Amino acid sequence: MGIPTPHISAKTGDFAKTVLMPGDPLRAKFVAETYLEDPVLVNPVRGINGYTGTYQGKKVSVMASGMGMPSIGIYSYELFNYYDVDNIIRIGTAGSMHPDLKIRDVAFGMGACTNSSFGSQFELPGTYAPICSFELLKKAVETAEAMEDVNYKVGNFLSSDTFYDDSMGTMKWAKMGVLCVEMEAAALYMTAARTGKNALAICTISDSIVTGEATTAQERQTSFHNMMKIALEIA
To answer: Is 90 annotated as a binding residue?
Structure first.
């Protein structure tokens, strides 16, 4: 398979080496229009909009992943394998499972546990532990340290296949030190590992399983600026 792919209509060279990847197409549009100079829509297929522009003189792309591991698995695979992308930085939302991780705090996923069978395709004789790019993580933490009023934690994520969990078992992961739950990081990290590329998930806490607090859909789309700024600085 070459380009265009079944899911991306962009041409060779349309994407930067680093792609910021929110789940929400409207967040991708917001990042492009708010932070990028001269953003160009390079992919409109299925409404998963991808844009390329410049940020402080650097060529940067931002494209949505959609929801869940199958979706980010498709887009990250195609970007890494066919569009010569080296780095994907997920900028998403997560639900806190840690009492010290509050609404609007930022979490960096050093690793990603999962209840998904996504990794079974690799036919490994054991359990694979997906981790991020240390280089990207180091830069992200240094950037967060230099910014004012950024509360963050680094640790393990849970990438879940279920948003509505009938077993109500999500908090069981907290006793093992897992910080928060989201739906994409593990698949992104596995795809990056398989392709020899780099990935990092940066998530803003949008709701807390501990306290029951939550933000609105509009707030999630347009107001999580610290996460966006960190990702852009390290792109």
So the answer is: yes
The reply to whether 5 falls in a domain is no
Query: Does residue 4 have a cis bond before it (omega within 30 degrees)?
Result: yes
pLDDT average, residue stretch 37-41:
97
| 37 CB neighbour count, 10 Å cutoff | 10
- For residue 6, is it within any domain? no
Distances, alpha carbon 25 to alpha carbons 63, 96, 101, 149, 177, in Å: 7, 23, 26, 27, 31
Mean pLDDT of 92-96: 95
50 is in an annotated binding site: no
Domain of 194, CATH number, reads: 3.40.50.1580
Judge whether 150 lies within some domain.
yes
Q: How many domains does the chain have?
A: 1
Among 14, 24, 105, 207, the one annotated catalytic: 207
Is the CB of residue 80 less than 8 Å from the CB of residue 192? yes
Single-letter amino acid, residue 139: K
Residue 127 pLDDT: 93
User: pTM (2 decimals)?
Assistant: 0.95
DSSP state of 95: E
Judge whether 84 counts as a catalytic residue. no
DSSP type of residue 104: T
**24 annotated as belonging to a binding site for a ligand:** no
Q: Which residues make beta-bridge pairs with 214? A: 207
Question: Domain limits at 189?
Answer: 18-234
| Structural domain includes residue 24 | yes
